[in-house]
Task: structure prediction
Amino acid sequence: MITNKDHFAQLPKEIKQGFSELNIGYHLRKANITKLSGYSCLTVFKLIFLLVFQYKNWFRAFMSKRSQDLPGKDTVYRFLNTPTYHWRKFLLSLSSEMIRLLQPLTSKDRVTAFVIDDSVFSRNRSKSVELLAKVFDHSTHQYLKGFQMLTLGWTDSFTFIPVDFALLSSPKKENRLQEINTNIDKRTSGYKRRQEALKSKPDVASALLDHALEKGIIADYVLMDSWFTQAPLIEKITNKGLFVIGMVKQLKQRYVYNGERFTLNQLYKLAKPHMGKKDIRGSVYGIPVKILFVRNRNKRSEWLAILSTDTTLENEEIIRIYGMRWDIEVFFKCNKSLLNLEKEFQGRSYDMLISHTTIVFTRYILIAWQMRKEEDPKTIGNLFYILCEDVKDIDFITALQSLIDLFQTLAEAEVSLNMDIFKNQMNKWLATIPNYIKQCLNISVCES
Result:
């Protein structure tokens, strides 16, 4: 008989409250993440969740003096490797719960947005990981071994919530170093995610939006960088009833303006004599769009272009809303540098990659919830709902400065993330983390 078998997974009171408020156990059961005997799935989930806050990965925890109090290695690995657990359903259910809790804290006029972006999930030292592939890292312009972590998030410019994700291998067989495990039951959700890993990024991005909309998660806009802002995906998104705002780059894509077809560079030359106006209205794939040009005052040959399918927006509002996209860059950095994405477990099965990534995203969601409660006085009670303004929205000047600073990193007609902008955004995010979480994550805390 096992007595007090989950004492090692006891949550600190602040995190325990967050688990209760976000109904973590309910969402696990709803996603069929359950067991009939032994340690419960919630207990094992808590154990893995807490590893990062105890300065340990699983190997160090298992080798510690307390290892005799922990579940066996097989128990944890079976939990992470089970293909029948519906981790996508869990994350969608949890994120929609979080967004529901945020709705009473913001005014109905506040802009919300979906953000689509990808980041390299590196397994560069691995050889036998299921569906491992050579993927291109746009930040280093090199091929690495790993996956493309395509992520859909939701933001109100103060709180970012990961809604869904896909770990993409490569559609090209020659780029895949490993294939699907043939022993996986094709009826399971794990097998379906393996099939998804072989699809193209635009197709999967559209599917991620479908999952969110089917769950009842809504937003005003879809924000994307230049890799995604291309005609086929724009058409798919607008057909879902959503507006797109995204950076565009100079490709062979044509835009119709005054009945004629133009490249982006040709449109810029048309707008250049009238830069007081700074925007041109045309169409792509028959979809009306507004393209806003932002020129580098210090080097007039450099410019950026932002496309919006909502042609009623003012230029300043387009820039301000697009600035909300930076939230996902902070999210990626936080998960990799603070929350042990990629590093905590080194298993070979695709199911483990999916399950552990979902648990890391859950850590971020819980931290985001605690941050919002500390920073937003309306969570204290209904009295403050009337007396207090919304938490600060991103302002036009901040968003514009972020765009202008991007000119420093223009290279080969591609726009990459400016580190000064990123560090500024990251520091702002870190400053708002509750102190007890900073201490758990070994982040320096200075109080006056």
About this structure: Confidence is low (pLDDT under 50) at residues 380-391, 408-417. The chain has two domains: 7-81, 103-237+325-439. Residues 371 and 434 are 6 Å apart (CA to CA). The first helix runs from residue 13 to 21.
